[in-house]
Amino acid sequence: MKQVVINDLKKIVGDKWVDQNPERVLSYSRESTNDNYTLVAPEPIEGSVVVKAADAEEISQILKYANQEKINVIARGAGTALSANTIPAQESIILSLERLNKILELDEENMLLKCEAAVSLGDLNERLKSNDHLYFPLHPGDEGAQVGGMASMNAGGVRAVKHGIMRNQVLGMEVVLPTGEIVHYGGSEGKLLKNNAGYDLMQLMIGSEGTLGIITEVSLKLYPEPKANGTLIVAFASREDAFAAVPAILKKGIIPMALEYVEKDEIELAAADIGKKWPAQNGEYFLMIMLSEAEEDDLFEIGAQIDQITAEHNAVDMLIAQTTAERKDILEIRSHILPAISDKIIDSPDVTVPRSKLCEYLNILNELEEKYNTRCPVVAHAGDGNLHVIILKEAGSKPDYYESLKKDIYQNAVDIGGTITGEHGVGEMRLEYLKMMYSERELEIMEKIKDAFDPNDILNSGKSIIRK
Amino acid sequence: MAAKKELLILAEYSQNKIHPVVFELLNKGQKLAEKADLNLSVLLLLPKKIDFSELIAHGADKVYYMEDPVFANPDEFIYKENILSFLAKAQIEIVLTGATNFGRSLAPRIAAGLKTGLTADCTALDIDEAGNLIQIRPAFSENILAHIKSDSRPQMATIRYQEFKKGTADRSRQGEIIALETKIKDNPNLKDIKKLSDREINIAEADIIVAGGSGVKNGEDFKLLKELADLLGGQLAASRDVVDAGLIAKEYQVGYSGQRVKPKLYFAFGISGAPQHLAGMKEAETIVAVNTDPSAPIFNLADYGIVADLYQVIPELIEMLKN
Amino acid sequence: MDKVLFDSEKGRIDRKSAGVEVNPFDLNALETAVAIKEQTGAEISVLSMGPNRAEEALKEAVARGADNAYLLSDQKFAGADTIATSASLAAAVETIGAYDLIIAGEMSVDGDTAQVGPQTAEFLNINHAAYVSELISLNESEITIKTSLWQANYSKSFSYPLLITVTKDINTPRLPSFKAKLKARKAEVKNLTLADIKEKLKIDKVGFKGSPTWVDNIVVPAEISRKTKVFSEEEKESAYHKIKEILIEKNLMED
After folding, report:
1. pLDDT tens-digit series, residues B149-208
2. CATH number at residue B42
3. Which CATH architecture fits A103-224?
4. Looking at the complex, does the CB of residue A143 fall below 8 Å from at least one CB of chain B?
5. Contacts of residue A280 in chain C, CB cutoff 8 Å?
6. Residue B323: pLDDT above 90?
């Protein structure tokens, strides 16, 4: 980055908040991607600079300046995304939002929490602990994830079956547009439950992966904390049985908080890695079902129904955790799977299929395992039809069939009505597969939307959508 | 004239020495005894008599001791039988003992034997206007401090190690050393007792932690931090990224997915301060952070920050401490 | 218990905000008992002193393998300190009948005094071992445990009866099966009141009146707010000086 640019940036944010130290710039250029998918994640292009803005006002000035100088800007949160979304592919201003870390308001009347972009999920939950009856349901795994990033990536995660994904949680936002204007969505207060005026630009912003604007403030929906909570672990001897039970449960009208699928090897490894023990001793394949009900009687009535349904699908065991500590342990183990196996894996496409097609997709996976003579462990937000198919290393390195297997995993999902990514997003790593899903015309519309927001293409250029 | 009543410190003699908490209690006990107009005494049970002059130099007016080979092992039953036999006849107003594992196991038995009150894990003590002991302890996950009093005698409390300072020795002090008879030497229910090993170290219990993060370039360099930790009698620890990078073993990891620690003093060397890490150490009493990046988030949490290279700072600190 | 609210207007704990979950340390105690039951065919009784809503916790224990559940509950027990609690529990134990081994969790997560175990042993006039982290061996006449005392690990072998308090290291409690929990929800919890245990009591009064200690005052300590003082590289020396001061102030300098 040219020295004159550095100097100009320092004028905006102050000397202390512009960092060119190559080691730290590299560190800010990497994501969890570089840890988890070492062999397939792109290496950052050098020469970027890290800028830590104090507020929306400074960000606005930076963006105006970047437009003038035609410099790429990448908004940076906790770096927990898994799609190479914030890894610079060119010399860029890495705009870290870390100083925007204040929780602004807990509004009990409107049941929402308003906070700045860099508030982490962990901080948010900590703050809500002091409140007796409201909570935030979403849990994408890493509690270091920041709400701004979660919104711009439209994060999902474990507890999305009942209340939905990030798109369903955001009531309002403050956003700095690529051209520097500061705008508010969800009304000027960001507190609207309904807004049917014009195109919904807020929803467009959610999941735009930092290409349409920089989210600086988010209002999140809170929910009354249910009184009776229980986590069921249902063990199966076969994958097919476990997956077949999923639509059967949901068909009954049972709506759990989470309905997860995990396999023995990975979950035991994850547990051991954080010094805990996976509670199930029988079975190889597990459904982890988190129930939240108003009364304990409801919890057990639903539990009994699940017990009956899963028994019909040859479940070998069903355990229940009701104490807070034990439920938390189970969620923590589940969330730790990816970090625990990161040195064994190449990639894990998070394809999503209609729930009814889960079994069909599994049969396809079995065929793929045979075709490539490998094993593809699966971790799944089964209730959402969202699978993480794991591609393993072979002898510590990338197998030659990797590209071909990955393409098969994506194409087969799309062919049965699915998508190439249910939650991780496109970033840079899934760009080329977008064409599996969208026509020329659809891709062109996306490009035009990008142009409308960001005429000079300065914001996270080259990510999320294909440009000609 | 009736003899002055006493404030008694029940001393732990283990690993062939008087546990250091005893000297801290003597220092505090002197002030309490003065305020409540009591004599300060110490009771020791030990396998073989030692020189007790240190106890007197640190404030004891009287040192009672029982000497018997049976006290070579921590058998609460024998200890409490003998201590109860002594307390039955003594004029004790207050009994204080360290909240070590043995203290926390033995003191409740004695209190129950006397049907007197006992407050666990006090962090502060005082005497009210009427001369009663105020026992202060954190309660409910340290959110509040409870001030507790007892209406029975003796008033008893266990006190955490390193809550009070050790005083300075006054070798000119005079005191009385009194041998007591060991009344009970047999516990028919205890069939065997033996030491297996000295306890392994646990960073969760350390008072000083010297932690390194990604600023530490390779595994070898943790030796530098270890040297500082050893010098301070502290423990080595690390943040997640260096553990993940294989530079140091998982058992050293502090953070959300590692151990949560609460030392008196926490050194963060080359740790940027990811929320993951902060979750594990933010409750440390005092945090000193050393980082070359002035905007590292750790500086928002630390009490003291030094914007400098750990490779420069640590050797200089070691140098200073050695002198 | 995950969270307890402190009412800063009333200046006291709102215990209603606390759940009635099994104290996590007690789950380790129960798991120890279940493992012994599997090995020897022993019968497990669980006993808790608390309000009526503690029945739920006892049913959880039944789901996990306890055979009998007793709830010691009486208005007159309210306000008990550890002495009054231990004396009441000891009297209940003697009322229930013969026993070989009493297992308790290391401490409760709310009071965390770790006193009730050893005090109960004293009222029963039996041996106890605290901080038990391993059952080394056990048979009909003798039990050998590992305990951590005097900054070392010891093994101790006892004949029965004995009371032990166990740490979290001793095991990982297993989850109950759903069917067992469903069944246990209908399990009978036997109620004991003051009248039931009166003859065995070794103190004159129970509850607040039988408690020698009381909370005289509660103080909410000021939040730790850290005012960061940052030293630049040039000011390193004064930073070192400050570190030395802290070490002395906190009494952390090695002798």
Report:
1. 998 999 999 998 777 888 999 999 999 999 999 999 999 999 999 999 876 556 767 889
2. 3.40.50.620
3. 2-Layer Sandwich (3.30)
4. yes
5. 175
6. no
Chains in touch with C (3+ beta-carbon pairs under 8 Å) read A, B
pLDDT per residue over C46-101, tens digit each?
999 988 888 988 999 999 999 999 999 998 888 888 889 999 999 999 999 899 99
Sequence-distant (≥ 6) Cβ neighbours of residue A329 within 8 angstroms: A276, A321
Query: Are the C-beta atoms of residues A153 and A170 closer than 8 Å to each other?
Result: no
Domain with residue B315: its CATH number is 3.40.50.1220
Instruction: Report CB contact under 8 Å: A319, C175.
Output: yes
Mean local confidence (pLDDT), A44-70: 96
| B240 annotated among ligand-binding-site residues | yes
Half-sphere exposure of A270 (CA within 13 A, CB side): 23
B85 assigned binding-site residue: no
- Tally the domains of chain B: 2
> Do you find a cis peptide bond into B154, omega within 30 degrees of 0?
yes
What is the distance in angstroms between the Cα of B297 and the nearest Cα belonging to chain A?
8
Q: Which helix (H) or strand (E) holds A243?
A: helix A239-251
The answer as to whether B196 is a domain residue is: no
B257 carries a ligand binding annotation: yes
Q: Are A250 and A306 in contact (CB under 8 A)?
A: no
Residues in chain A closer than 8 A to B256 (CB atoms): 122, 143-144
List all residues 6 or more positions away from B249 whose beta carbon is below 8 Å from its beta carbon: B243
Q: Residue B243 and residue A6: Cα distance in Å, rounded? A: 34
Cβ burial, residue B144 (10 Å; 0-12/13-18/19+): buried
The residue assigned the tokens 């009070």 is B164
**Domains A103-224 and A343-436 fall in the same CATH topology:** no
Q: Is B113 annotated as a binding residue?
A: no
- Residues paired with A95 in a beta bridge: A51, A75
Residues B316, C236: C-beta atoms closer than 8 Å: yes
Chain A positions touching C178 (Cβ under 8 A) are: 232, 303-304, 307, 318-320
The domain over range A228-339 is classified in CATH as 3.30.70.2190: yes
Chain B contact partners (≥3 CB pairs within 8 A): A, C
Q: Domain C5-210 belongs to what topology?
A: Rossmann fold (3.40.50)
Q: A145: nearest CA in chain B?
A: B275
Closest CB to B117 among C152, C212, C236: C212
Interface mutation target, options C22, C64, C178, C183, chain A, most CBs of A under 10 Å: C178
Q: Would the ipTM clear 0.90, i.e. be above it?
A: no
3-state class (DSSP) for residue A107 = strand
